[in-house]
Amino acid sequence: MDWKSFMEGSKNLSTFALAIRAVILYIALIIATRLMGHRQVGILSGHNYLVAAGIVSLAAIRMLNPESSLTSGIVIVFVYAFVNIFLSYLDIKWPRAIDRKPTILMKDGIMLRQNMLDCHVTLDNLLGQLRLKGAHNLSEINSIVLEPYGKISVIKKPEALPLTRKQMNLPSKMAALPAILIYDGKIDEENLNSMGLDHKWLMAKLREKGISSPQNIFLAMLESDGTVYISI
């Protein structure tokens, strides 16, 4: 293989060479994304979005065009990543100077039309976001805030909030995450031991469902309320 043509690009590259270039570039994208951290994936501020769009566009060009330079593509990917890390650091130190601030779209139950116009948020957009938040009636909402990363936060009026166990004078309930007990016929020993459970307890739960062996189970989970969910 001609390594210079492979790295710098050539119209005579074979399909196999193009595939290897795509794999290398994809691995570089994964490494760059890991370097940028969770913020890039979960919280997209303005500069995060531009970096993500730029990297995706760059990767697409390098993957499709055999004459493009793989070396320069990898360099640009990591330059983008480090610029993004630097801007995210500045965003933490001086958030008002780097990123946008939250915008109030509703206050005390009153829609702020000018703020909606300034943020280019249409009523249909807003109502759609509210439905995703489980807030279907505007009369139940006290405040709506458009966050810098494009999502909305909703604060309902006190009379529209659901009752809590504390308000009902009920004893507190320990919160716990669901845990996998069996996956694809194999018992997750680590999860079982971490919860202080053993095989005897697990087999008893399986017999209650009419199941004799863990090998017959695709997924078994212990849910937060103590229920054992089983899917064969």
Automatic annotation (TrEMBL):
Record Pfam families: DUF421
Key words of the record: Cell membrane, Membrane, Transmembrane, Transmembrane helix
Membrane topology recorded in Swiss-Prot or TrEMBL: Multi-pass membrane protein
Top-rank taxon, per record: Bacteria
Classification via InterPro entries: DUF421 (IPR007353), UPF0702_alpha/beta_dom_sf (IPR023090)
Cell membrane in keyword set: yes
Limits of the YetF C-terminal domain: 96-222
Membrane-spanning residues: 12-32, 44-64, 70-90
Keyword field contains Membrane: yes
Name the record gives this protein: DUF421 domain-containing protein
Species name: Lutispora saccharofermentans
